[in-house]
Amino acid sequence: MKLLKYLVYIILVLLIGGAIYFGIKDGKFDVSSSKEMDAPLGMIYQTVNEYRTWQEWGPWMELDPDVKLTYADTTYGVGASYSWDSEHPEVGKGSMRTLSVEENRAIDQEIVFGTPLGDSKSDVYWNFEPVENSTKVNVTWGMKGEQTFLEKVFMAFQSEPFDQSLKSMFDKGLNNLDNRVQNEMNKYSIVVEGVKQHGGGYYMYTTSASKIGEIGSKMAPMFGMVSDFMNKNNITFAGMPFTIYNQIDDVNGTVIFSTSIPVNERVITPKGSSVFCGYLEPSRALKTTLSGNYNYLDEAYEKARSFMLENDLTADVSAPMFEIYANDPGMVPNPAEWITEIYIPLRDPLNINAQ
Predict the structure, then answer these.
(1) What is the rounded end-to-end Cα distance, in angstroms, of the chain?
(2) I need a labelling partner for 11 at 20 to 30 A (CA). Which of 161, 168, 263, 272 fits?
(3) Cβ contacts of residue 58 below 8 Å, gap of 6+?
């Protein structure tokens, strides 16, 4: 009997000691992970802010591809939410709700895990910070909260420390997010639409000579110059910006081009101005539309030239080629959604695919 009493005494001491230990053990946590992503900030932010994308990159989705997802009426922005239900022990049940957003800067969410010990709530946070002098964005994903007494006891007997397990999940999720964003950015399509009639018209422009490979870096400030001139002089924009290729020297790899913005009528510019008004003659042209990053323009031109060769179409070398940018990259962060319309004027009026 004495032995039994001693055993009971020892067990009581251990239980009391354990209760004291876990009772005073700090249950607060704040775990995060960061990753630099070379992608438009707005695109990364919008992807995270839309819960319907999470099934494509959420790290727990790989544990149970059959997890049941339920979306609320709102899945983007403040008030958005979704929930999940899985028989996999590491996925379980839970829900997430967006509490606040700061566009392109931060997102705050609340996550609720359904556990055998009861519901467990924590705060989830995202921060998006552009990397100085770079096209990259530093993305931080974290979670903070406080474990209950039973949660502290439960986690003490897990094979991996709680902080380490959570950080591993964030690392995996950020890698998946980066891959998802990169895949979306690289999508594109090219459609040769056939021979079209372009109406031409007046436009404001500025001109420059450049190496072909340097056109992209010169275009933005040139468009800015034309836009600023028009705004200062209260000149109305009559369409989307476009580039005219006045002269291309394939041998030397140079080009003379004009960045242009349509206007409704002829504009007389002051002497000494670097912005001028021109007129684009109406023309019959082969139209090709690229939906995607401007990096694919060379491929779009190749397809256009192949179409011309197959259909006996001849370019009118006396009229310049031009590209119309049907949407603004500043408003459309995903390059896969940029739309460029390419027009190659034709010398002979043919009826092939004419409209």
Answers:
(1) 104
(2) 161
(3) 173, 176
Helix, strand, coil shares of the chain, percent, nearest 5, are: 35, 35, 30
For residue 134, give every residue at least 6 positions away whose Cβ sits within 8 Å of its Cβ, in sequence order, or none: none
Residue 281 DSSP code: P
H helix or E strand, kind and range, residue 56: helix 54-57
Task: For residue 284, give the nearest of 341, 345, 193, 353 by alpha carbon.
Answer: 345
Give all domains of the chain, ordered by start, each with its CATH number.
Answer: 25-185 (3.30.530.20), 189-345 (3.20.80.10)
Residues in Cβ contact with 299 at an 8 Å cutoff, skipping those fewer than 6 apart: 190
How many H helices and E strands in the chain? 7, 15
3-state secondary structure at position 303: helix
Q: Are 36 and 177 in contact (CB under 8 A)?
A: no
- Centre a 10 Å sphere on the Cβ of residue 165 and count the other Cβ atoms it contains: 14
Give the closest residue to 108 by CA, choosing from 91, 125, 121.
125
- The C-alpha atoms of residue 168 and residue 165 are separated, in whole angstroms, by 5
CA distances from 138 to 31, 45, 112, 252 (A): 16, 11, 26, 40
Phi first, then psi, for residue 275 (nearest 5°) are -115, 135
282 φ/ψ sector (left φ>0, alpha ψ -120 to 50, else beta): beta
Q: What is the pLDDT along the chain (355 residues), one digit of tens a residue?
A: 544 444 444 444 333 444 443 344 445 889 999 999 999 999 999 999 999 999 999 888 788 888 899 999 999 999 999 999 888 777 778 899 999 999 999 999 999 987 655 577 889 999 999 999 888 999 999 999 775 544 444 444 444 566 788 899 999 999 999 999 999 999 999 999 999 999 999 999 999 999 988 898 899 999 999 999 999 999 999 999 999 999 998 889 999 999 999 999 999 999 989 999 999 999 999 999 999 999 999 999 999 999 999 999 999 999 999 999 999 998 999 999 999 999 999 987 544 444 4
Distance of alpha carbon 77 from alpha carbon 101, whole angstroms: 7
* Alpha-helix runs per DSSP H in 80-237: 149-156, 162-185, 215-232
